[in-house]
């Protein structure tokens, strides 16, 4: 199992999404958090399972929610650069790629 490191923007957007879903319906934010945690564990256990999306970055779709984890496999860890809503502003996180390349 690999170590997962979240970019600060990725962590912020994840927490914002948790808050948003919780405001929509009590318990939905908690469910979103749980599903994302399961997806992160899947990425940590088998990162090569997910297809390359852009350069060396891969995408793991979040079940039951319109979000994806965008990540790269680094030598000593997995870097998550976005927990992105897949229908709002597609590719908005592309500028983060340059920050790490």
UniProtKB/TrEMBL annotation:
UniProt keyword terms in alphabetical order: Toxin-antitoxin system
InterPro entries registered for this protein in UniProt: RelE/ParE_toxin, RelE/ParE_toxin_dom_sf
Pfam family, one: ParE_toxin
Top-level taxon: Bacteria
Protein name from the UniProt record: Plasmid stabilization system
Protein source organism: Chlorobium phaeobacteroides (strain BS1)
Lineage: Bacteria, Pseudomonadati, Chlorobiota, Chlorobiia, Chlorobiales
């Amino acid at each position: 199992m690999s170590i997962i490191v979240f970019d600060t923007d990725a962590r912020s957007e994840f927490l914002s999404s948790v808050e948003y879903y919780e405001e929509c319906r009590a318990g939905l934010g908690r469910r979103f958090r749980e599903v994302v945690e399961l997806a992160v564990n899947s990425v940590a256990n088998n990162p090569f399972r997910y297809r390359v999306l852009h350069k060396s970055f891969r995408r793991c779709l979040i079940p039951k929610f319109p979000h994806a984890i965008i990540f790269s496999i680094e030598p000593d860890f997995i870097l998550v650069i976005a927990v992105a809503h897949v229908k709002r502003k597609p590719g908005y996180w592309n500028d983060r790629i340059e920050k790490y390349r």
